[in-house]
Each structure stands twice: as structure tokens, then as C-alpha cells.
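Why run this: before we spend reagent on co-expression, it is cheaper to look at a predicted model of the complex and decide which construct boundaries make sense. The entries below are exactly what would go into the expression plan.
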Amino acid sequence: MSAVAQALRAHARWRWWELATFAALVLSWLLLPGQSLLLNEIAILALFAVSLDLILGYSGIVSLGHAAFFGIGSYAAALFAKLVMPDPWVGMVVAIAVAALLGALCSVLILRGSDLTRLMVTLGVASILYELANKLDWLTGGADGLPGVVMGPLRTPFGAFEFDLGGRTAYAYTLFVLILCVLLARRLVHSPFGTSLQALRDNRLRAASIGLSVNARLVVVYTVAAAIAGAAGGLLAQTTGFASLDVFEFHRSAEVMLVLVIGGTGYLYGGIFGAIVFKLLHDLVSAWTPQYWNFWLGLFLVILVLVGREKLTRPWTWFGAKR
Amino acid sequence: MSEVVLETRGLLKRFGGITPTNDVSIQVEKGARRALIGPNGAGKTTLINLLTGVLEPTAGSIWLDGQDITQLAPHKRVRRGVVRTFQINQLFGELTPLQSLGLAVASHLGISGGWWKPLGSDARVAPACETLLAQFHLSDVMNQPVKHLAYGKRRLLEIATALACEPRVLLLDEPVAGVPEGERQEIFDIVNALPADVSVLLIEHDMDLVFNFASSVTVLVNGAVFAEGDVQAISNDPRVKAVYLGESTEERAHG
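The model came back. C-alpha cells follow.
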């Protein structure tokens, strides 16, 4: 293979730290059985953030309402389990399908306008869904939420596993969905389609000028991101046995954005690293000072943005001579 | 006269009270080397924007191979072979030159929507990129993000990206703007080496380059076609000299 052909494919090559990340995720299930509930939360947030990275980091679409898809996935999974059948796999497929459908519908809203328009439109969509879930209380339970979602056993080739209180089954299930989605997203971003997303993020005019259909690509990636966000929401409902209005709330959309700010965008793993740092920070600080943890989180974010992630994650450069 | 590839009929564009393109009807033949000249503000770039679909005309129509493409989306015109370069670089800052060219080649091959196999898994992509990288002296920087490249390299990539789409009609909007004098001819040599059936429409201010490159010239003034003809006729046309060439050719003739 020529040097050019190799260089062209080099972007898709596996890096050691990617494999290490997947290994660490699996090991966390094996080695930290007592922490499964927290780890499950982290993995769900990570998946949610990975889905936002596809549109924010790779395609340059800003969104303050990504919780719309998380929430619809959550309610879809909860309602499906309550009203139709309790099988988690089928419920997951339904959650993904419903979120993808909503994503496809909403994608036309983000094609036009500026970043500011998109922030407002996405925020608006999430607010509308929140209010719908609130008002349709015969279906969603309104402000009380949908309690008592009972999941059936998780059927696998190794046997069927009940969801236990310690969250062992739940975390294994979430990890499986997370890893599967990240592997799929990884193929996507290194493909010509993924490269074209980055191209239209950098310059829509030129992307069209080399024959790429900008709008069609945005519709597809927005739908895919919505589907993955729906999977994350579905996981939350299925593994906690509960869906409430909280899944549509603004703070969820903002939180997932913070996770990407912490972890970094445009390399797919930022969502995972960001979710780990964010949740652990949240957990540690709120245990230490339950009332003021927001203060410390805010301070951390300010420092992160001022100093820069590059510098903050390379402590050995802190005290070097100034160049 | 050979077959007409690209044609405009009564093309008109108005922005409020300004008419940058005023009743322009031109025909570009297959294999033409046509220069589009005119003073600043004559509407040259606007015409290119209309031809490529970046702007929608107020009136008139655009025809490609005898088909009306006035309403066709920009990217679809590119797929039919109408490709342009920009006066001001329009590049993909975070991608590398190799990725940019690879994507353009993939787009031309109709495989840019593939989402499973990595970019470059199609065996036709890399050789096409390799040729362009070598032609445009980009091989040594092919893996650096475009935003870190020097201006000259970015300018070369601007043109290489258009050629990666294998145009049938190539619209060059001041391709050598900002390129050092010594390297300009090289870019034109590459354009000249395009297959004979590729039509080229060139906007350029350097009259030496225009007269070396083009076989025919269209002169735009105030948005309208002022004169049209082969290079000899235009360079000797006293009216054209008066509005545009005037002093500079005089100087050149004496210098």
C-alpha cells in the first residue's frame, strides 16, 4: 500500500488508549461490584454525551435541547415495559426507534439559521416535550412520573439475568449498549460520511461545492444522534424502573454539554471521559459539601476553560520553563 | 463551432437597487479556455455564484448540456461537473489536505455517503489523491491540519480540491490571487494540462496570464457583457482598452 493510502486510513486505526478505555470500562464492572449504581449512571451519561458529540463535535450543530431525545427514549422505554411487554431488548429497540423518529422530524428545524437560532429551537423542542409529558398525565403520570416500571429478565446467550438492586445486571447491560453504540459511532466518524460531517462543520459552502448534500447529511446525523440519546434515556428508565419529567429538563441538556466541555469534542471519547470526571466530581464534592457542590463545580469549569484542557491534563508541563 | 456545455440566457441578479448581473447571455463551449475580465465590481464573482447556485438569479436561466439547471441545488450542479474555486479560500480547517482531497474524490465517485468502511478503503481514492498532492506540492504537508498550513499551500489546496472533483466545467475565481509570481505559471500549467474536453472559465486580473491561457475572452462591465471575442480581437478592441485594459497595456507595450 502506498504512503498516501496508508495515511488516508491512519485516522481509522485503533489507538492504544481507545482499547485501554474499553478495557477499563469492562474491568470496572468486574472489579468494582459495589459501585455498579454510580457506574451505571456514569455510563448512561457517557452515552448521552457521545450522542451529543456526533452533532456538536463532528457536525458543529449546537443544541441546548438534546434532552428531548433522551427524555422521549426514557418515556418510550418505560411505557413500553408497562403497557406492552417487559423485555429490555425489545424496549431498547422501541426507545431508539421513537427517538430516531423524533430526531428525523426535528432535524428540519436545525438546517436553517445561525447557532443562536439552533440553541433556541432545540431548547424550545425540549420545553414542548416537557410540557406534553406534564399535561398528558393519563399516559405519563404527569408530574408524578411513571413509577413501577418492572423490567423482565435480561435474556442473553449466557442465560437470563434479573435486574438486581445492586445494579450488577443493569451496569453490564448499560455497558454493553454503550460499547456497541460507541463502536458503531466510531465506524461512522471514520467513514467518508463522518469525514463529510467534519467538512460541512468547517465550511458548508465548500462542502456543497465538492458535491456534498449538506442538508441530507445533517438530517442523517441528527437522527442518529437522537437515536443514541434515546438509547441512553431508555437505559435510564429500564435500569432505574422509573421515568419522570426530570428527563426532559433543561439541566439535563446543559449537563451533557458540560460533560463535553470537560471531556472535549470531536474525538468521540470526550463524552466518556467527561462523564467520568463530571460524575465523580459531583459525587465527591457533594459528599463533602452537599449544599455548595455547584459552587465547586462552577469553579472547576471556570479553571478548565481559562487554563485549557490541554494544560490541565498535562500536569508535568505546569512548572516547566516558559517558552 | 463546437458544442455548447454551459449557457446563460438573460441572466439577471438584483440586490435592492444594485444589479451586479444584468442580462448576461454567454455560451461556454466544450473545451473552451475562456477568461472573464472586467473592472472591480463588474459582477464577475456574482456570475460565478449564479452559475454554481450559491445565488439564485432574479431572472433568466442557466443551461448545462442543453438542460435547464437554474433551480438545481449547488451540490447537484457539482455532481454534473460544474466545479469552482473561490477567490477567498474556502477550506476544511480541521481536516488535513489528504482528507480534504480524499473526500472530494469520494464525492466525485459517489461513495461519500458510505458510513461503514473508512475513507480511503476504496482503492480508487488514494491514487487520485496521490497525483493531486504531487502536482500541487502538498505531499509533504498532507497530514497537517489545513488551518496550520501556510497561505501558499492553502491556495494550492483550494485549486486541488476543485480538480479532485474532476470537473467538466471548471470555474476559477482568481486562482492565483496571493500566489507568488514565480508559482503562478505552474498553477496554470496544471490547469492547461486538463483534458481537452474540460471547459475552463477563468476570472483573472493579470493580463499576461489571461492572454497566455485563454483562447476567448468575455468582458463584463457594470454587470453586463461589454465585449466578447477571441483574445486577439479583445486585446485590440479600443473600447475594451478604454474601460479596462487602457493604461496597463500601454505601459506594457512601452515597457
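Residues 58 and 198 of chain A are 5 Å apart (CA to CA). The mean pLDDT of chain A is 93. Bring this page to Monday's planning discussion.
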